[in-house]
Amino acid sequence: MYTEKVMDHFTNPRNVGELEGADGVGQVGNAKCGDIMKISLKVENDVIVDAKFKTFGCGAAVATSSMATEMIIGKTLDEALAVTNQAVVEALEGLPPAKIHCSVLAEEAIKAAIQDYYVKTGREIPGGGCTGCCGSCGHDHGCETEEE
Amino acid sequence: MTNVNPIIYLDHAATTPMHPQVVEKMAQVMANTYGNASSVYSVGREAKALLEASRESVAKSLNCLPNEVYFTGCGSEADNWAVKGYAMANRKKGNHIITTKIEHHAILHPCEFLEKNGFEVTYLPVDETGLVSLEDVKNAIKDTTILISVMYANNEVGTIEPIAEIAKIAKEKGICMHTDAVQAVGAEAIDFKALGVDMLSLSAHKFGGPKGVGALLVRKGVKLEPFMHGGAQERSRRAGTENLAGIAGLATALEISVENLSEKQAKIKAMRDYLISEIEANIPHIKFNGNREHRLANNVNFCFRYIEGESLLLMLDINGICASSGSACTSGSLDPSHVLLALGLPHEIAHGSLRLTLSSKTTREEIDYTVSKLKEIVHRLRLMSPIYDMSLEEN
Ligand SMILES: Cc1ncc(COP(=O)(O)O)c(C=O)c1O
Description:
Chain A is α+β, with helices and mostly antiparallel strands. Chain A contains six helices and three strands, in the order αβββααααα.
């Protein structure tokens, strides 16, 4: 049911782990639904110089996270923000229909990590970004400041 | 992916490899007994004789009358027929059906269909080990109750229900009692008469027989609308030219399964308990699912916290181990298995379930290899899991 590319990224995932002193961290999804992705970024001069992920989820969730980190390393923030879930699916040579949501989660994880970088550096988010708290992406970065 | 490892098949609850004697029997029947059992000439009579011999064999294996055995196209058909056929034929008596939350979809979906058509269904809860309570059964009975259907043994967590006791309650109230014994026939000693149920479903491929053939045992006198309308086969209750090879295969597989059953059962049980204790001794953060006492001899089911079941299955497969899971990704929906949820497991833990089901041929070496791989894989997936980190931080 999975392409060879998906199985390759599942069995030999690239960029697993967490970056020490990451410039931006995004976590999306929730355990109730069975998938959580966490992507951390190192940014220099608006270029993503390193990215790592941790994922709780199915084979497709692991493979899309792995592919997503591979696709954004070396890209500018604007270029990374333009990476769509469709692009991740294509890079993996396809996903079964029931697993497309994993690629959506990967796109959201990238956006959440970049947004976190903008928030941390006090810069304006291009296009306004997500306001947080809507719950649609399952994480609550917008609410953290209130809790603290 | 090419697989370099020998296959270790630990998914006997999904289906079983066919017994060589069954394959041989079926090949013989397909090659030689081509007649239609309804034809009057010799070739047809030969088919009819084999059909009736198979029926008698099944009756003997399960202690019922030969004319209480009705062959069907699969276990699902037997379940559908029992529930819908009984409801349709007895709707004048009442419209209430009692079943459980942990039934196979072959029972649940027919019940939902009946709900859309004027019937009322009570889905009984189970305790955290998967057991139905007799009190709940009694309390659910109404004046309008016509049918109680409770599975003999659960296909995911292996819990064996108190069927004889429930059948007794049903009988006292004059309510028809059906049991889906698809996971139990061939694995547990079953005496239809002594059990006291009115109908019982079984499926050949769960006990070394072929796929696509099952049976419904129907006690004499039970009113049942045919499910498959048409010709006069199966005493006009199940139309369709009989799948003779499949039926002969079912009967042969059942004969082999019930032979020395208690010895085989003891052997599998010992292996099962060894597997359970090895997993518990070697892997932390796990949850045992089901009932330790009232349990199918071949069923092991655990949840591994902080990881997801499909990932686990894929990694096991790479190592040649065939198993199954009740995670959302394997159930084909957004929710994990309805059985694990009915046991009260939270979604996030239910996603990490693994079912291993053995056979009498499963060896200690296979179990040792499986546990060692499982330990590695669970560890590896946890290192990749953000919620494992969070749990470590909390502790
Ligand atoms: C408890 C139970 N009931 C019914 C079925 C359906 O049987 P079949 O696959 O023959 O339709 C199965 C098997 O999947 C089962 O485990």
